[in-house]
Amino acid sequence: MKNDTIASQFELLADLLEIEGANPFRIRAYRSAARTISSASESLAQLAIAGEDLTQFAGIGKDLARQIVEFVQTERLQSLEELRAKVPPGVLDMLRIPGVGPRKVAVFFRTLGLRTLEELKAACEAGRVAELKGFGKKTEAGILQNIDQAVANAARISISEARVIAESVVQDLRQLPEVLQCEVAGSCRRRRETCGDLDVLAVCSDSAPAMDRLAAHPAVESVLLRGDTKQRVRLKNGVEMDLRVVPEESFGAAMQYFTGSKEHNVEVRARAREQGLKVNEYGVYRDDEQIAGRTEEEVYAAVGLPWIPPELRENRLEFRWANEGRIPELVTLADIRGDMHMHTTASDGAASIEQMAIAARERGLKYIAITDHSKRVSMANGLDEERLLRHWEEIRRVRETIDGIEILCGIECDILEDASLDLADEVLAEADWVIAVLHYGLRQPHDQIMQRLLNAIRSPHVDIIGHCTGRIIGRREGADMNMMDVLKAAADHGVMMEINAHPSRLDLSEIHAAAARDLGIPIVISTDAHSTDGFDVMQYGVDQARRAGLTRDDVANTRTAAEFRGMLRSG
Ligand code: DGT
Ligand code: CA
Ligand code: CA
Hints:
It is built from 24 helices and 17 strands. The chain is of the alpha/beta class. It has 4 domains: 3-153, DNA polymerase, domain 1 (Orthogonal Bundle), CATH 1.10.150.110; 157-245, Beta Polymerase, domain 2, CATH 3.30.460.10; 251-323, DNA polymerase, thumb domain (Beta Polymerase, domain 3), CATH 3.30.210; 333-567, Metal-dependent hydrolases (TIM Barrel), CATH 3.20.20.140. A 7-stranded parallel sheet has the order 11-12-13-14-15-16-17. Strands 2-4-7-6-5 form a 5-stranded mixed sheet, sandwiched between helices. A 3-stranded antiparallel sheet has the order 8-9-10. The mean pLDDT is 94. The chain binds 2'-deoxyguanosine-5'-triphosphate and calcium ion (CA) (2 copies). Residues 186, 197, 199, 242 line the site of one calcium ion.
């Protein structure tokens, strides 16, 4: 269990307490514990399991230590369950509105008695929020403007959250002797950026134990519907999950059908029809005879198609590739050899250069770039020229002491609002690796954003543009840019493009990553790790690359360190 998972429980506890109107000291204690936990470099779960005294951490007293152990051992927190029972899930959804925190939500819930986003919207429209003490017309208008987005987001979760829950359910169900096969389907299997609900399929000798087991899973809040072959549950995070029990001879057909996408399935069915066949979730049929259905391969083969990786099933290019017999061999996590974007304690990371390098080596990486923030990002303790030069010296020192991994001296350099770079050219010229990024002024007009990106691309020191659009999925739109023009400039100047693997960014999108590949731009998949756990997100970046149809050759950090260095502009 990750520190962030534990920390998020205490953040949620603090939010719920604040909404409840609890003692501010208690709320602050939980928040500070959450911060301590998420920035700890050791695994709290491992310490808890080893029986270590957790009160050694600042801000963690006896009671909190006991709760951490409880959560690590049972995946539940009694205190959290009790609070959840008092606050309706729709009230927590209000926290997803930009600019609305627990203090405001407390007023909506306790003063106005609002229980859902819809009720809050109606209250704003009726002017009741503007009348509240400490609010006003401007706040009310802001909420109204953002609430529809929050309604849309409330219904979808990130791919990382989806995968953790879906895979835990599947592992759990597979333990039952009555469960013969069990897999995740739907958008989660296609690795979309977000999932609206989760779809799980199983073959069972008896479906009742599987349904009981799902109902008892720690992530499940309640059972919404239960039949002989289908159960729908509501999860604690607000999304729903379907468990479908299908006959063994239909498992492949059901996987194919429920993996989707709908658009992909429409085309599969059309192809089947052309051959006088019928496809549904039970199998492929000629007249009334089932000719395939047990495996997906069989289903695709029966309609004259090769098996298509789920990440490509969006009815974009996969059928054309299938016709031409060239479904790409997609890049895999095992192909990745380097990670070119990460932070240390020099800026806002939780681990030292050494700790990051060792953790990267443990994950099998052969090279990394340390890329702390530049000075504009003052709240992340960004580095000015002088500190950066000293930091690089430190990196070179560490380099001498660690075998088996190359460490490049890098920097994540802000592209300032006036389109200049945050650090002097002489210093950037000394770097092994410069990532240029937009952090501030993302809402500037189109022309200014383009000016900034194009200026950075023209700088001879910039190797790559990081998280190009600046979007935060579900929370913040990317900057207003013409991506094709950005990519063309990058191709002209030999600048690479990053797929930022963090599940809240996944920037480039799969569409933009495919466009970059078409222009011959080397793509680098990077974790942007802020701790040693941060390396774990590489898989999500690889999934995004797979959805773009990228092969190992398209991804620069699958190369050896020497090959990678040979691809840099500076040579
Ligand atoms: P989501 O849940 O919005 O993230 O996206 P999906 O793709 O998981 O969609 P979902 O859960 O509604 O359905 C799962 C799959 O089942 C979907 O990708 C294709 C298949 N499916 C569901 N309903 C239909 C339908 O009405 N027609 C067709 N052709 N396929 C469907
Ligand atoms: Ca789904
Ligand atoms: Ca579904």
